Amino acid sequence: MAMEGESSKARGSRPCREWEQDPLCFAHVRLLAFDLLALRPVPHMPGYFLRRGRSVRQVEVMGIVVTVDRKERYLRFTCNNGTLTKMISNLKYISCTSFFIPDVAPSPVHGDYLCHVVVDDGTGCVPCIFWTNYASFPATSPAKGLELRSRQEMAIATTAKVKLGDLLRVQGRLNTYTNQIQVTVASLRTEKDPNAEVLHWVECMRLAKCCYDLDPSLQKRPLVP
Fold first, then answer.
1. Where is the major localization of this protein (predicted)?
2. pTM of the predicted protein model
3. Do the domain assignments include residue 90?
4. Which residues of the chain have pLDDT under 50?
Protein backbone atom coordinates (compact mmCIF):
# COMPACT_ATOMS: atom_id res chain seq x y z
CA MET A 1 0.00 0.00 0.00
CA ALA A 2 2.86 2.36 0.83
CA MET A 3 4.51 1.66 -2.49
CA GLU A 4 1.22 2.30 -4.32
CA GLY A 5 0.81 5.60 -2.46
CA GLU A 6 4.35 6.66 -3.34
CA SER A 7 3.77 5.69 -6.97
CA SER A 8 0.57 7.76 -7.13
CA LYS A 9 2.34 10.69 -5.52
CA ALA A 10 5.17 10.43 -8.03
CA ARG A 11 2.74 10.37 -10.93
CA GLY A 12 0.89 13.39 -9.56
CA SER A 13 4.11 15.39 -9.25
CA ARG A 14 5.52 14.52 -12.67
CA PRO A 15 7.17 17.62 -14.24
CA CYS A 16 5.23 19.39 -16.98
CA ARG A 17 8.09 18.88 -19.42
CA GLU A 18 7.40 15.13 -19.32
CA TRP A 19 3.75 15.48 -20.33
CA GLU A 20 4.52 15.96 -24.01
CA GLN A 21 6.47 12.70 -23.94
CA ASP A 22 3.30 10.90 -22.86
CA PRO A 23 1.25 9.70 -25.89
CA LEU A 24 -1.91 10.15 -23.82
CA CYS A 25 -1.42 13.91 -24.13
CA PHE A 26 -1.99 13.79 -27.91
CA ALA A 27 -4.64 11.05 -28.21
CA HIS A 28 -8.43 11.30 -28.02
CA VAL A 29 -8.80 9.59 -24.65
CA ARG A 30 -11.96 7.50 -24.42
CA LEU A 31 -13.60 8.34 -21.10
CA LEU A 32 -16.96 7.82 -19.45
CA ALA A 33 -18.62 10.98 -18.18
CA PHE A 34 -17.91 10.30 -14.49
CA ASP A 35 -14.21 9.98 -15.28
CA LEU A 36 -14.27 13.18 -17.31
CA LEU A 37 -15.93 15.07 -14.46
CA ALA A 38 -13.12 14.00 -12.13
CA LEU A 39 -10.36 15.53 -14.29
CA ARG A 40 -8.42 18.32 -12.56
CA PRO A 41 -7.42 21.43 -14.56
CA VAL A 42 -3.75 22.40 -14.41
CA PRO A 43 -3.34 25.92 -12.96
CA HIS A 44 -1.96 28.49 -15.42
CA MET A 45 -2.03 25.93 -18.26
CA PRO A 46 -5.35 26.26 -20.16
CA GLY A 47 -6.45 23.11 -21.94
CA TYR A 48 -4.40 20.75 -19.76
CA PHE A 49 -6.12 18.40 -17.30
CA LEU A 50 -4.78 15.68 -15.05
CA ARG A 51 -6.04 12.14 -14.68
CA ARG A 52 -4.04 10.14 -12.12
CA GLY A 53 -1.07 12.39 -12.77
CA ARG A 54 -1.19 12.03 -16.56
CA SER A 55 -2.10 14.96 -18.80
CA VAL A 56 -5.25 14.77 -20.95
CA ARG A 57 -6.13 17.33 -23.63
CA GLN A 58 -8.50 15.53 -26.01
CA VAL A 59 -11.33 13.10 -25.32
CA GLU A 60 -13.94 10.91 -26.98
CA VAL A 61 -17.41 10.47 -25.46
CA MET A 62 -20.64 8.81 -26.54
CA GLY A 63 -24.28 9.23 -25.51
CA ILE A 64 -27.92 9.44 -26.59
CA VAL A 65 -29.64 12.72 -27.48
CA VAL A 66 -32.42 13.45 -24.97
CA THR A 67 -33.16 17.15 -25.61
CA VAL A 68 -32.79 19.40 -28.65
CA ASP A 69 -32.96 23.21 -28.56
CA ARG A 70 -32.98 24.77 -32.02
CA LYS A 71 -32.45 28.51 -32.45
CA GLU A 72 -31.99 30.73 -35.49
CA ARG A 73 -28.25 30.19 -35.75
CA TYR A 74 -27.44 27.39 -33.33
CA LEU A 75 -28.68 24.02 -32.14
CA ARG A 76 -28.77 22.94 -28.50
CA PHE A 77 -29.56 19.38 -27.49
CA THR A 78 -29.00 16.94 -24.63
CA CYS A 79 -27.77 13.36 -24.88
CA ASN A 80 -28.46 10.63 -22.31
CA ASN A 81 -26.16 7.69 -21.65
CA GLY A 82 -28.53 6.04 -19.21
CA THR A 83 -27.89 7.96 -15.98
CA LEU A 84 -29.74 11.23 -16.55
CA THR A 85 -32.79 9.96 -14.63
CA LYS A 86 -30.57 8.87 -11.74
CA MET A 87 -28.79 12.22 -11.51
CA ILE A 88 -31.69 14.56 -12.15
CA SER A 89 -31.81 15.70 -8.51
CA ASN A 90 -28.10 16.49 -8.39
CA LEU A 91 -27.08 16.95 -12.00
CA LYS A 92 -23.42 17.12 -12.90
CA TYR A 93 -22.45 17.58 -16.49
CA ILE A 94 -19.63 18.17 -18.93
CA SER A 95 -19.93 21.05 -21.34
CA CYS A 96 -18.76 20.51 -24.92
CA THR A 97 -18.14 23.35 -27.33
CA SER A 98 -17.41 22.65 -30.98
CA PHE A 99 -16.03 25.33 -33.26
CA PHE A 100 -13.51 25.86 -36.03
CA ILE A 101 -10.32 27.56 -34.85
CA PRO A 102 -9.28 30.12 -37.51
CA ASP A 103 -6.01 32.02 -37.90
CA VAL A 104 -7.65 34.91 -36.05
CA ALA A 105 -9.87 34.29 -33.02
CA PRO A 106 -13.56 35.11 -33.63
CA SER A 107 -15.26 38.02 -31.94
CA PRO A 108 -17.64 37.22 -29.05
CA VAL A 109 -20.41 38.82 -31.12
CA HIS A 110 -20.58 35.59 -33.12
CA GLY A 111 -21.43 33.51 -30.05
CA ASP A 112 -24.88 32.63 -31.37
CA TYR A 113 -23.53 30.54 -34.27
CA LEU A 114 -23.37 27.24 -32.45
CA CYS A 115 -24.92 23.87 -31.75
CA HIS A 116 -25.24 23.06 -28.06
CA VAL A 117 -25.29 19.35 -27.21
CA VAL A 118 -25.50 17.41 -23.95
CA VAL A 119 -24.69 13.68 -24.05
CA ASP A 120 -25.32 11.22 -21.22
CA ASP A 121 -23.32 7.99 -21.35
CA GLY A 122 -24.78 6.29 -18.28
CA THR A 123 -22.41 7.90 -15.78
CA GLY A 124 -23.08 11.62 -16.35
CA CYS A 125 -24.34 14.27 -18.75
CA VAL A 126 -22.17 15.89 -21.41
CA PRO A 127 -23.53 19.17 -22.90
CA CYS A 128 -21.99 19.95 -26.31
CA ILE A 129 -21.96 23.03 -28.52
CA PHE A 130 -21.30 22.93 -32.26
CA TRP A 131 -20.33 26.27 -33.77
CA THR A 132 -21.42 26.98 -37.34
CA ASN A 133 -20.06 30.50 -37.88
CA TYR A 134 -17.12 29.58 -40.10
CA ALA A 135 -18.09 32.07 -42.82
CA SER A 136 -17.84 34.94 -40.31
CA PHE A 137 -14.12 34.36 -39.73
CA PRO A 138 -11.66 36.57 -41.66
CA ALA A 139 -10.39 34.95 -44.87
CA THR A 140 -6.73 35.62 -45.68
CA SER A 141 -7.19 34.48 -49.29
CA PRO A 142 -9.96 33.50 -51.74
CA ALA A 143 -9.09 29.85 -51.17
CA LYS A 144 -9.41 30.34 -47.41
CA GLY A 145 -12.80 32.00 -47.86
CA LEU A 146 -14.00 29.07 -49.96
CA GLU A 147 -12.77 26.65 -47.31
CA LEU A 148 -14.59 28.55 -44.55
CA ARG A 149 -17.86 28.61 -46.49
CA SER A 150 -17.52 24.91 -47.21
CA ARG A 151 -16.91 24.18 -43.52
CA GLN A 152 -19.96 26.21 -42.55
CA GLU A 153 -22.17 24.32 -45.01
CA MET A 154 -20.90 21.01 -43.64
CA ALA A 155 -21.46 22.13 -40.04
CA ILE A 156 -25.01 23.28 -40.75
CA ALA A 157 -25.77 20.01 -42.56
CA THR A 158 -24.37 18.02 -39.62
CA THR A 159 -26.40 19.86 -36.98
CA ALA A 160 -29.57 19.59 -39.09
CA LYS A 161 -29.39 15.79 -38.81
CA VAL A 162 -29.24 15.71 -35.01
CA LYS A 163 -32.51 14.52 -33.48
CA LEU A 164 -33.90 12.97 -30.32
CA GLY A 165 -32.83 9.39 -29.71
CA ASP A 166 -29.65 9.59 -31.80
CA LEU A 167 -26.55 7.89 -30.44
CA LEU A 168 -23.66 10.32 -30.91
CA ARG A 169 -19.91 9.87 -30.82
CA VAL A 170 -18.13 13.15 -30.00
CA GLN A 171 -14.40 13.94 -30.13
CA GLY A 172 -12.78 17.19 -29.07
CA ARG A 173 -10.45 19.24 -26.87
CA LEU A 174 -10.89 19.93 -23.17
CA ASN A 175 -11.22 23.39 -21.67
CA THR A 176 -13.13 25.20 -18.93
CA TYR A 177 -15.85 27.84 -19.07
CA THR A 178 -17.33 29.45 -15.95
CA ASN A 179 -15.37 26.93 -13.87
CA GLN A 180 -16.99 23.97 -15.66
CA ILE A 181 -15.14 21.44 -17.78
CA GLN A 182 -16.01 21.52 -21.49
CA VAL A 183 -15.16 19.64 -24.65
CA THR A 184 -14.41 21.71 -27.74
CA VAL A 185 -15.80 19.27 -30.29
CA ALA A 186 -13.73 18.48 -33.36
CA SER A 187 -16.06 15.84 -34.83
CA LEU A 188 -19.61 14.62 -34.33
CA ARG A 189 -20.99 11.35 -35.69
CA THR A 190 -24.26 9.46 -35.39
CA GLU A 191 -23.82 5.77 -34.57
CA LYS A 192 -26.23 3.32 -36.24
CA ASP A 193 -25.03 0.18 -34.45
CA PRO A 194 -27.23 -0.40 -31.35
CA ASN A 195 -24.29 -2.14 -29.67
CA ALA A 196 -21.93 0.81 -30.12
CA GLU A 197 -22.66 2.36 -26.72
CA VAL A 198 -22.08 -0.88 -24.80
CA LEU A 199 -18.88 -1.49 -26.74
CA HIS A 200 -17.80 2.07 -25.89
CA TRP A 201 -18.33 1.39 -22.17
CA VAL A 202 -16.31 -1.84 -22.35
CA GLU A 203 -13.52 -0.18 -24.32
CA CYS A 204 -13.36 2.74 -21.87
CA MET A 205 -13.01 0.35 -18.92
CA ARG A 206 -10.42 -1.78 -20.73
CA LEU A 207 -8.32 1.23 -21.71
CA ALA A 208 -8.53 2.68 -18.20
CA LYS A 209 -7.28 -0.57 -16.67
CA CYS A 210 -4.66 -1.47 -19.28
CA CYS A 211 -3.42 1.96 -20.36
CA TYR A 212 -4.73 5.15 -18.76
CA ASP A 213 -4.18 4.06 -15.14
CA LEU A 214 -0.58 2.98 -15.79
CA ASP A 215 2.57 5.02 -15.48
CA PRO A 216 3.77 5.73 -19.07
CA SER A 217 7.28 4.63 -18.14
CA LEU A 218 5.91 1.12 -17.45
CA GLN A 219 4.23 0.80 -20.85
CA LYS A 220 6.98 -0.87 -22.88
CA ARG A 221 4.80 -2.52 -25.50
CA PRO A 222 1.53 -1.70 -27.27
CA LEU A 223 -1.82 -3.07 -26.12
CA VAL A 224 -2.98 -6.33 -27.68
CA PRO A 225 -6.78 -6.57 -28.20
1. nucleus
2. 0.74
3. yes
4. 1-13, 83-112
